[in-house]
Design brief:
Elements (H helix, E strand, L loop, with lengths): L14 H5 L22 H13 L15 H5 L5 H20 L1
């Protein structure tokens, strides 16, 4: 493909642009810089209110535990050893059913 096939013709240059570089360019007035504003966050208000209330003396709080239900101490608790024994029992029952 020869390059001669891709010829283009440029438009003539406006001579006024060469004489006066500001020709055709509009003058834009500069804008005033943006003034920064501080944030007004809800968390700041909460922190401030906590500091205001922290100056007050705290009331003394004493922890009182609830009594343990008596039924827990009377019955035995099923532990891991009893659980393992029950699983072994069920395995034995299944094995005997398969053999019969």
């Amino acid at each position: 493909m020869p390059l001669s096939r891709y010829k283009f013709k440029a438009n003539p240059v406006n001579e006024n642009i060469m004489k006066n570089p500001s020709y055709g360019v509009k003058k834009v007035e500069p804008k005033e810089p943006t003034l920064p504003e501080g944030f007004s966050l809800e968390t700041d208000r909460r922190i401030q209110s906590r500091h205001d209330t922290s100056s007050e003396p705290d009331e003394h709080y004493e922890f009182h535990a609830q009594p343990i239900p008596s039924g827990i101490l009377e019955h035995t608790v099923v532990g891991k050893a009893e659980h393992d024994r029950s699983q072994n029992y069920f395995r034995l029952v299944i094995l005997l059913r398969i053999l019969n």
